[in-house]
Input
Amino acid sequence: MTARGDWRVYVITDAGRSRGRSHLEIVEAAVRGGATAVQLRMKDEPARVIVETARAAVAACRAATVTLIVNDRVDAALAAGADGVHVGQDDLPAAAARALLGPGPLLGVSAATREEAAAAERDGADYLGVGAIYATATKADAGAPVGLGRIAEIRTASTLPLVGIGGITLENAAAVVRAGAAGVAVITAVTLADDMVAATRRLRERVDAALAR
Output
């Protein structure tokens, strides 16, 4: 499958770890800071709220040619006109998500092993979220960190772009890219920053420099 999407700096929203900022505020700051993709992660909100927020996020991202992904909710992504959906191993199965989405929208799948990666590619994924690379407190079910070596290991099982996630900061982002990832996904490195725009911009600079080496 031909790679689609730009996954260099992939910011994920989390209103519970954002110093009171809304999902949309995070999206807008990430876009201004140079994020190449944003994921709207709204786990507990009603469907109507997710769709309304996603529509506003789509508008903000589209104006800057930034990819907008919705976490888990295929229905909300389709209703809002988002660019795609990301599912985890305990969410809607990748094959079912692809069947609902059709061939156009992007599909991301979390994969922590070679077997999960191979299955996700077979089922129609466009990119893989690999992790948790480092220890993280953001996602309670993230499991033990898999380390940088897992990126190279999964690369042997899949040709899809790999996005490192889990405990990624400005200080370690370059190492994740040098290990073979197409980019990094972050939550609190941006959402808890004093200045979310500046934090995103610094992360983009660090990732771009690592990819240029």
